[in-house]
Every structure is written in C-alpha cells, then in structure tokens.
Write a structure and sequence with these properties.
The structure is a homotetramer.
Chain A: E1 26-29, H1 34-44, E2 55-58, H2 71-74, E3 89-91, H3 94-99, E4 104-107, H4 111-123, E5 127-130, H5 140-143, H6 153-162, E6 164-165, H7 168-176, E7 180-182, H8 186-200, E8 210-216, H9 231-234, E9 239-240, H10 249-256, E10 263-269, E11 276-283, H11 290-300, E12 307-309, E13 327-333, E14 339-346, H12 350-365
Parallel strand pairs in A: 1-2, 1-4, 2-3, 4-5, 5-7, 6-7, 8-10, 12-13
Antiparallel strand pairs in A: 8-11, 9-10, 11-14, 13-14
Helix pairs in contact in A: 1-12, 7-12, 8-10
Chain lengths: 374, 374, 374, 374
Amino acid sequence: MTATAQLDIDIATQTVEPSTKSTLRTAIAGVTGYAGAELARLLLSHPRLKNTPPMLLGRAGADASAAPVTLTSLHPQLSHLPHADELTLVPFDFEALAREKIDILFLATPHDEARSWAPVALKHGIRVIDLSAAWRLQEDANRAIYKLTDPDPAIGAALQREAVYGSPELHGPQIKTARLVANPGCYATSIILALAPLVRANVLDLDRGIISDSKSGVSGAGKSPTANTHFMHAADNLSVYAPFGHRHTGEMLEQLSLDNSQFQFTPHLLPIPRGIMSTVYAKLSQPSTTAAVQEIFDTFYADAPMVRVRTSPMLPEIQHVVRSSFCDIGFQLAPDKQRLLVVSCLDNLLKGAASQAVQNMNLMAGFHEADGLQ
Amino acid sequence: MTATAQLDIDIATQTVEPSTKSTLRTAIAGVTGYAGAELARLLLSHPRLKNTPPMLLGRAGADASAAPVTLTSLHPQLSHLPHADELTLVPFDFEALAREKIDILFLATPHDEARSWAPVALKHGIRVIDLSAAWRLQEDANRAIYKLTDPDPAIGAALQREAVYGSPELHGPQIKTARLVANPGCYATSIILALAPLVRANVLDLDRGIISDSKSGVSGAGKSPTANTHFMHAADNLSVYAPFGHRHTGEMLEQLSLDNSQFQFTPHLLPIPRGIMSTVYAKLSQPSTTAAVQEIFDTFYADAPMVRVRTSPMLPEIQHVVRSSFCDIGFQLAPDKQRLLVVSCLDNLLKGAASQAVQNMNLMAGFHEADGLQ
Amino acid sequence: MTATAQLDIDIATQTVEPSTKSTLRTAIAGVTGYAGAELARLLLSHPRLKNTPPMLLGRAGADASAAPVTLTSLHPQLSHLPHADELTLVPFDFEALAREKIDILFLATPHDEARSWAPVALKHGIRVIDLSAAWRLQEDANRAIYKLTDPDPAIGAALQREAVYGSPELHGPQIKTARLVANPGCYATSIILALAPLVRANVLDLDRGIISDSKSGVSGAGKSPTANTHFMHAADNLSVYAPFGHRHTGEMLEQLSLDNSQFQFTPHLLPIPRGIMSTVYAKLSQPSTTAAVQEIFDTFYADAPMVRVRTSPMLPEIQHVVRSSFCDIGFQLAPDKQRLLVVSCLDNLLKGAASQAVQNMNLMAGFHEADGLQ
Amino acid sequence: MTATAQLDIDIATQTVEPSTKSTLRTAIAGVTGYAGAELARLLLSHPRLKNTPPMLLGRAGADASAAPVTLTSLHPQLSHLPHADELTLVPFDFEALAREKIDILFLATPHDEARSWAPVALKHGIRVIDLSAAWRLQEDANRAIYKLTDPDPAIGAALQREAVYGSPELHGPQIKTARLVANPGCYATSIILALAPLVRANVLDLDRGIISDSKSGVSGAGKSPTANTHFMHAADNLSVYAPFGHRHTGEMLEQLSLDNSQFQFTPHLLPIPRGIMSTVYAKLSQPSTTAAVQEIFDTFYADAPMVRVRTSPMLPEIQHVVRSSFCDIGFQLAPDKQRLLVVSCLDNLLKGAASQAVQNMNLMAGFHEADGLQ
C-alpha cells in the first residue's frame, strides 16, 4: 500500500449527509477471519442490500491470473446465501473501489493496515467502518499499546479527532453523519453498555472502584492457530489472561470517563466458541431500590433496539445471545441496597463486532438501526 | 433411621487419639454420587489401605434378598481398581458398622441424614468425616439455610461446637484428634485458601470489600438430572446463579472472620465437567510489593502438601488441577501496588470434596497428610 | 381430549388444493420442546407470515385463570422476534382452532397424542404436519415399536394410508395436496437423503449390505433431563445406543424399499448440542467412476433447494449445517471404484425436524419451498 | 545427528534377555508432546522406578549454557509428581545415554528421527521403544506413506525384520526379548484388539468386508496448532478425514492378515480432548450365538490385564476409558446371528500410546505387565 503517498484528504470535511441513495454499495477488507465472515453473512442477507452484494477485498497486488478465491471455499457454511456462490476476492485497490462506487468500506484488517488505509478511503470519498482498534482511542497513552504509526501524522491526528466511536447506543447521532467510524471492541461493548447508564446517571461511588470480571469464547482470540486456541488448551479449561493490562481497557476508560484507579478488568478464556459475559461489580453512592435502578436501565435503552434490558432479578446467560445481534443486560441489587451486580452478555462476533458494524452502517445509510439484525 | 432414639453419646469426650492401629477400616455412605465415586476410588488405591477396601453403604433397610448392587455397575470406570469387583452395597446399619470395627465413616449423604447419623456413629465409637454441609457452620444464622433439625437439640448443639471444619491447611492439629470433621464445600475451599493467608496476615483493607467471582464445572451441581445440568443448557453457555445468597457463603465468612458487608461471592456455571476457579479481588491496606505478597503465601503454605503456590505473575488454570488433589493459588498485584488479584483453582470433586476428605482421614489416622493423593 | 368421540371425518377426501389464501394461519402444539421452539422461531420470521404469528397451544383444559405462559419465558432467546413478546400459550381446543380459522396445525407432541388428535384436526378441516412418528410408517410391524392405539381403528388405518411421508425431496407433489403430512425423523432424513439417489438409480449391491454409522448431538434426545442427557454423561464422551433396534429404522427401510438384512443402522450420542452426521457405507453393483456417482447425486437434487450436494472429494462437516436448514451430502469412491462412502450432515432440529416441517408447509401453502429457510 | 556415520551394529544379535537388573534406567526423547508428557507421568509414578526418574532428552546440540527447560514448565500439571521439579531437558547425545547406563530409550519423536536413531541406540546397547510409526510396518508398500529413508539401507532392512510390533496382547513373548519395539498407532490398537480374536478364530466372512468407523479426540492430531486443531474448528463439530487412505491402515492389515479389499477404515475427528471409539462391522461366516462370540473374546483376553472385555450387550463408552490404560471391548450380535457389531474404546494417549509403551517396557524389563498402569 503506497497509495497514501500523496494524501491530500480534506480534513475540514468531517461529516457527510446520511445517504439517500437507493442502493448502498459496500466492500469488506478482511473477510477471511471470523468477524469478516459474519459481516459477509449479514450483508448478504440484509433486506436493504438484496441486489448489491459486498465487494470482497483480498491482498493488494494479488496475482490476478491466479485462481480466484471464492467466499464459499473460505466459509462453506455461507454457501446458501443469495449471491454467495458468485463472490470471489478481488485484489485490494482503491481505484477499483472508486470505480465500483463503493459507499462504505468495512475494514476487518490488522490495526496498522486500518490506520494506513482509512485516510485513503476517505480521500476517495468512501466512508469507513473500521473493526480494528486503529481509530477507537482519543488519548495517545491509550493508543500506544497498538504501536500504530501514521503515514502523515497531521492527517492521522486530525482523523483521529474526527473518528466516531461506533457505539450506536452512546453516539447514534454522530454516527449518522460520520465519515470514519471506529467499531468498538467486543469486551468494551459488553462493559460499556453495562455501565454507561449508571455512570451517566451519576449514581455510582466511583472511588470504591468498579470491577469487570469478563469471560469470552475462543473466537475472540482470532482465527490464527496458536497454543492458546488449540482445542487441547481451550477445552475443559478456564484461564485468566492479561489482567491489569488488556488493550481494550482504554476504550472503556475513555467512553465511561473513568481512570485506572476506578476501574479494573480481568478477561478469562471460556471453553466455548462464541459469547462474552461481563460480570460487573459496582457500588451505588447511596442505598437505592431495585425499581430505581431498573428505571435507569430501561430509560437509557428505551430506544435501543439491539439492547435487551432484563427485569431484575433475571440475569442474562450466554446462550440467550449467541448467534444473535443483541446485548442482554440484567442486574441485582445486594440486600444492603448499595452493592450492584450487573451482568452483560453478547456474541463477540456479532454485537461485539460484525452486527455492531452493520448497525453503524444502518445509521450511516439512513436505514432503520436494526435492519438485517433481527 | 430410628437409631437416634436413645442417644446417650458422651458429649464430654470431644477428641480421640490419632489412630495407631495397623489397619484402618473405613465405610462410605453415599457412594452413588460423583464425590462418593471419587472417594471410593481414592480409598481403593490408597497405599495404606491396600487390603482393607471400604464398606459401601446403601439404603438402610434395603431388601437383603435383592440382587446386590456392585460398585462397578454404578461406576464402570472403577472396574480396574483392586477389590473393586468384589464390592457391593450393604444396607446402612450401625450394628454392622460396629461389628466390622469401622474406624471412620464418610458421609456423602444429604445434609439432614448427615445431621441425624453423625451422633449415632459417634455413640458407636466411629469417627465421622461428613462431606455434606450439616456440621460446617457454627452460627445458627448461617446454618439456617439448610433447614436442619436435630433429633436431640442439646446433643446437636454440643456436637456442633465439637465439630472441626475440615480444612487441613487451617485446622490440621484439631483434625488429628477430632471425632467429627465437617468437610468444607468446594467453592468455600477455593476461596478460603485464596484469602486465609492475607486475612491472617492482616494486610487487607476489609472495608473496601472483597469480591470472589467464582466459576464451577457442572459436577458441582450433583448427579440428579435437572434442567440446569441438561447438556443443552450447560454446554456452550455461562450463567450466574445464586448471587448474594449462595449457601456456601456462611463457611467463607466464618472461616475468614468476615461479615457480609465485607465480602461478596458470585458463582457461575461453567460448561465443563469438573474444576473451580475463583477470581478474587481484594485491596491491601497500604501499597506493598509482589515479593512481600508472595512471601505471605509461600510462608503460609510452606508445609501444606496439597496447595501449590505459583510464583507471580503465573496464574493457575483449571486444566492444571483437574483430576488432581491440589489447590493451585497465584496472584498479581496491580500497578498501584494495592489492588490484588488472587486466582485459585481446584477440582471440585477432589480437593473440593473427596481428596480433602481423604486428607482429613490421613490426619485422623496418623498417616502422612498426602498419602494416596499424589 | 375427548373430542374424538364422535369422529365422522370424511376419509374419502384425501387431498386438498394447495392454499391460495392471502394469509395462512398456523398453530403449534408442543412449543415447549427444542423442535417446537425452532418451529416457532421459523414461523415468526417467515416472510410470508409476517402479520400472522402462530397460535401456540398448551395443555387442553388448562386453567384459563392461571397466569399465561409466554413464549419468551419458555425460550428467552426468541424475545427479539416480531410478535414474540405478545405470544402466550392457549389451551388446546379444536373449537378455538376452528374459530381462529387455522389452516395448518403442527403437532410437536408425543406420538400417541399425535395419533389421536390428527383425525380430529382433519375433521375440523385443519391440515396437519405431525413432527412425531405417529403417522410415518405404513407397515404395522414397523409401527408396533411406538405402541400406538387408534380411537377408531378404521379411521386410523384409512388416515395412515392417506398420510404422506414429509420428505419434500422424495414426495413433493403429494405433499402439496396432502391433508396429513408425517414429518420424517432426524436420523431417517439424513440417511434417506444420502441413499435415495443411489437406490432409485439402482446402482447398489443391496445384498452386500448397507451400513449407516450415525452420530447425533444431544438435542436429539429431547428436553427432559435424564441420566443420558446430563452434561456429565454426555460431555467428553461418545456412546452407542440402540444398535440393531433404533425406532427410526422402519422409516429408512420403507422409504428406501430395503429389508432388514440389507441395512444396518448404529446411532451414537455426540457431545455437541446439535447436528447429525451419517457415515454411510455401500457398494456399487459394478465398478464406476466418481463422475458418474456425482452425476447421480447432482441430478437427483437439481431442484432441491434444501440439499447441498458437495463435489467429491469434499465431504460435509457438522459445522457446515448447524443452525441451517440444509442437508449437506458428499461422497468418495474407494480406489476399487466400487465401495462408496457417503456422508450426510444436517441439523437435527431443523432439516431433521422444524425446517423440514416448514418446508412441507411451504409446499402445502403454495409458497416457494425454501421460503423462510435461508 | 551424525552419530549414524560409522554404524556397525550387530544385526545378528536380535534379542536380549529380559532385564534382571535391580534398577531400570529409562530416557525419553520427545517429552514436549502429549504422548511424551503422559509417558513422563507414567514413568515418574511407576512403582518399580521410584528412585530412577527418566532422563529427558531435548534437541541434540542444544546450547548447554542456555537456561534449562524444566519438565514442569512444559507441563505444569505434572508438578506434583516425585522428582518432577528436578527434571530438565538435556541435549540428545548417545554418549551421555551410555554414560548414564540407560537401558531403554523411548522415542516419541518424528518418524524419520526414530528411523535414524534406533540403530544407533541399539549399537550402544540401548533397547528402544519407538512411539512413532518408523518401525511398525514390514511391507515396504505400507511403509512408503511415511517416506522414510535409512542411513544404511541394509541395516534398516535387517532391523525392520527384527522389530517387534508392540502389541502385548498379540506379541507378548517376542516383546520380552526384543531390542526394538514398534509401539502401535492409536487407531490401530483400537481396531486390532477388536478384531484379532475373531480373525484368529477364523469365524469371519472376510470377503463380505470389515468396516471400522472410528472416532478420535483432538489430542490424536498432535500438539502443533493447526486449522484443524483450532478450538473453533474442532468444537461442536464432527468431520471425516483421510477416508480410504489413513496411514494407520497398513498396521491393521499386517497385524490382522487382511488385504485392502477386505477392510475399510474411516477416521473422524471428535470434539473431545481424548479417547477413541472404533465401531466395527463384520459378519460371521455362519450364524452363531452371543455366548459363542463372548467366549472367543473372553478366552483371547483371559490373561490380558489391560483389556477389559464387556459382557454383551454392554458396550463401552469413551468415558469409561479416558485417562485409564485400558482398552474396553464389547459387542452385540444382530438378530440374524451373523452380523456383528464390535465397539472398542481406549485413551489414544495411553493404551493408544504412552501406556502401551510402558506395558512393553514392563515386559522387556521382566516386571509385571500392568505395573504402574492401574
């Protein structure tokens, strides 16, 4: 990718009108991974995109004379979807994207590629939904963990300020007109959605500290075979990893306006394919009632079609959300009426990745937020 | 069971000398369950009990003319063990136990049976290791959750005071001479062993609150088929149950001298057969160092053969302990040098039940504490 | 159910015209089980039934004053579907079904209830798709295993002759006009679809014997908690059950025109929630080629939207079909060009139950066969 | 490894006396894998090897100044075993093996290393138990699949003739005096033990064809992370691999004196960590009785401590053998009294690898065959 060489993107143009085109054209870079496969599935079955399957982008500069890689050879389970059998990977090339009049480019690529490519896409007038972490973090200190470099630091900094964190429940209006949406991390989504109503309602004793004990299925670790994703390590096991230092922590702190002393996050690897549960511990500033807390959640998510608030004492289970696009949230208040247990579940590949990306696309395209997600 | 009718147990005699008999005779009531099966396995392969397999007790008053139930028909996987093929269940009868000169009776029975039978066993001069919760709790308020009744309340109260909580790492000397040992709960063991060194060293800020987010495999839910233990519910799932009210909580509070406001325990059902992980969150009263905390754990467990303290930052995983008799403990200190993450793993059927019972038997019999457990 | 008392069903009327009604009304008896839940899900999201959710039938004579049982309390994972939150179980009552102008009644009930109720439904002019085994078998000897009794034997016998085995790939035209469709068993579907093209092409050496070594996930064993469906038995295990005598065998023999000496079926319980694989061994009458066998499969299923024939040597895996409505079929020919390995996979709750029922409904209603199934 | 350069092994000396040394010294090459870990565990807890832990061999020529790799860093679950904490990998070096007076060298290495190293070991007077496939096959055509080359073809051929196939139930007497034992494959063991009694009793209709539909847990695929051993592929799945061409087939054919036209083997990958089930289909030459077939199995294995023959109709399950050293075998005869279903289960890492190797060592050392295996 040297396409960034003469980058003269208009960094003054920070928003666009929601699309009113009759057809929306999409492209996916990174369809080989788990999130990419789910994204392809969702777009292929999206009721508003019936006749416009996404372009699927392979490596830039791939030998055009080689046998084409078909979507269904990568993901045989998709072979029943409309158009799936016709789709093959085409070499990543911004000119081709422009020729095809692509409106929205999904990046399900490594962080550094997403950091380099997003500016080029914007320059070509293509809006970007980035599923990597490249654009999620406003604070340099939080972003440092990803070791990103910008081809043009000034443009990188400007686009970073422009980028919208793609949590529709928190930033819906900004997403509608955004050029660059940073789709949230899977753990981050589960925790932010569990805590945002309480933090915004200002009812928590933040100095007491909030703890999220989170557990994720193995797909969260990606498709590359590693010692940790080997069946023999993951099955019949549970293990903690990256306590005090998981790289999704920065997103949670920024979105919830917390600092490190107020928040602690411990991820665990669950022996299941998909699903995240975050068991969140917090304390109210003063004693309250179950009804009052319920009201906070119900109100906050009254217009959020992809969050299902459960009525206390019901708590969500991972099975309720696997292969769905929902985040389920439930809570219980301790007998002391102050300690609060909030449980949040979602499918890490869907509401934690691909479905949230489609939800963002829906907002950007002027579709209904839940189109293609139920 | 009406044998308690004329109970005149000598409640003044509260301890016995550790056995010096050349052979120890044991019996198990409740061998049909998972913990009972593990107990049978451990006793049959115990190096000090080679020629004295345990008596296996079935229902009192069972029809002696019925076809005998063999151990290996209940648990085919035990059929290779010495004597296993000879063993059949005999009807529970204290006279028979006395005739066979049983020294130690293991009760892996429902709580109320254990509450009724233990006094009768003691009256017959038989020491008891009770795997139920019947005798674990000194405080009436904590015990109330089990709805136990005593045939003779005065004797019940006296024996309750006499009963020793069977945590060898905490009460080893008392266990050696005990007549009645209350084998700890599986969750309780994992949490008490994670916290006891810190609580006894008086280094925790108790008012900040301690949280144990614990996860157990399905065998912890028992052998009876229920909606929750159905494969379709447990597999590929994670669910919270009994937050703020799990009945093992009382054990933890009593053994750690904590009150409810200082401690919170949330159990989860893991989609694995065996194993418990407790992820414990605590805060030191003042900043310390990893080395100092390591020293606390290492010293506390220096002579504890069944606890493996890991060197920070190594944390235990469930796979390290499944089918072993160990409790593995590890920790990490936050960058603020005050927040502490302690992770404790054990096999709920072994160190959480049967192995701990055998460890107690070893102490009571004057054997080496780890005999038959490595 | 005494509604069968004065049964005067017109047994001369054996077929109906495919429906041309603008709206189709459906009802489900037995929505509490796994197949019933999938059926409710499929009907609620069926594009042709958008505004006509199914009636959900509970026990006949249930106390109408009791709190209503909601669909989403039974199956929380369905709560996002349109209309799902409004649906409650209503007492089974044929008058109510008639009043509501139900066109098609799905029976996901025990076999004997399905045997008793189907005639009454037909009498009320309601077509029936029965997911039980009550009406699948034409030969009394094969049906004997279910110990069914008919309220009126003459009517039972007549309806049995009328009933159409609901395999759309084999009996599509008859299904379109059928009043009573017997939805096939899950194992039976996987095996019949693997073998029917070969048997009908008359290329197998039947005397050599055909063997199906089949494996099913635990949902095939039903929702009732039993020793076999307990997580501790099913997980990390594989077991054979009912060799030489599984009750689905009769369906296979009748549909494939084989006798017992020519066919052998061994079911295994797999440690997974859903999915069936049948590994089928057969021998061609004379040596052939991969291309010729491929042609047989491809031709047979050319117009079958719910069967995906793989191109040899590709073989299906269970993951390719789980949560889909497809049956995937692949094969390999031995180096001797005569021995044939056919592998067939489907989701036992979908193509093996609920999806096949909807496929039958589509045919009966004049919809496209695959509506709502992709 | 250039130690084979001047190989002048005495190929006339083909057997040795069973050892009568008071202590046996062993070494393991390849302890990093799953079978190697189990082998280390078995040798460390072997009652006849209490004070002589095995030497653990790492790469030849490894830098002696590098930090030593400890056994317990490779396999934390072994850390409780006697001597485990002292053991580190030492560079592979035949001089060192000789200096340490190693009697038996276990090779759990790649096939080609085992082919090169075994002659050198024998030259140094060290007996070899090879867990790879290097020496299992007498027929060149069967061995070709492994693409082995011999440093000295004449010696390779001579040692191949000398090598004893390490199935104690078939070749016990030869194993006792063997210098080079080729430990069988896991699938091969399960199938050979299921069929050998019937084949030797000459009761099968071989021309009808024998089929083994076999299923293995994921540990059989080795420790290297691959797309197939990734949790996301293996979990909740079942897949066929290598039908008509699995490389273990040659062992089965040779040991059972069958040819390819008489035998067919289809392996499947099960979503469990450990365990193999072979479901074997055969036909008796003429009708017989369950009692007669039972007698054939019971007699054949009367003195085989590591095979448990179940009484028909009981069939083994994988759970009965996981983590045990047994092969369990059961059968059922069809109602036609001729078709036979034989089910064989073992733990692929134990009776299918490490335990069988120890069983062979026991025979070679003059120990009891089952020492350390129960």
